[in-house]
Write a structure and sequence with these properties.
The protein has no helices and eight strands. By secondary structure, it is mostly beta strands. The strands form three sheets. The chain has a four-stranded antiparallel beta sheet with strand order 4-3-7-8, with no helix packed on it. It has a two-stranded antiparallel ribbon with strand order 1-6. A hairpin with a 4-residue loop joins strand 3 and strand 4. The radius of gyration is 14 Å and the shape is globular. The model has no long low-confidence stretch (mean pLDDT about 85).
């Protein structure tokens, strides 16, 4: 199991609501994508399964993933609105490459 820490800041005029871990993914060196799974990290707080972030506030937490021990993680992604809310996910996705 591996975990990634995410922080969501609500910058709009209304509360931001979404599923907490549904939009989180990691990618390994072979291109295999792993979706988040419910679970608790060994250190730190779990990202809530549902988010309701008032304007100007933020939430932070860890999201866990089941991956083989031999996997080399090369990227982490988070898509806001991944619960199928009809958003343009390309503009609402954070993608980080790991070295």
């Amino acid at each position: 199991m591996v975990a990634a820490k995410f922080t969501i800041l609500s910058t709009g005029d209304a509360a931001y609501g979404d599923t907490g871990n549904m939009g989180a993914k990691i990618v390994d060196s072979t291109g295999t994508v792993y979706a988040a799974k419910p679970g608790s990290p060994t250190v730190g707080d779990t990202f809530d399964l549902t988010l309701n972030v008032p304007p100007g506030e933020r939430v932070t937490g860890w999201v866990t993933f089941d991956v083989p021990e031999s996997a080399k993680i090369t990227a982490v992604e988070y898509e806001m609105g991944a619960a199928g809310l009809g958003l343009d996910l390309d503009e609402r996705a954070g993608k980080w490459t790991l070295g």
